[in-house]
Amino acid sequence: MATEALSQKETEDRLRELPHWSLKEGRITRSYRLGSHFAATAMVVHVAQIQEELNHHSDLTLGYNTVSLAVHTHDAGGAVTERDFTLARRVEEIAPAHGAN
Asked: In whole angstroms, how far apart are CA 25 and each of 1, 54, 64, 75?
């Protein structure tokens, strides 16, 4: 079953609910800065666990003390869908536990 793409307005409305997330090159994106490389690595593992639970995976990038996500839905032709925002909200929920900002 295909997931329906959100309109530009729907995407913009949902982004207003997620400070620091933005639309870039057809994906919703966010970067987090953490206190150390170890903290960033721990957050990547936690995000990967969430992605497995949701069966929805982002491009997830680990830097020295940063974690970046870029999310879109392959099943919707690479468009942004509600599934992307579900993932983004879940990541926002766990970020403070890792000291991310």
From this structure: 25, 23, 24, 17
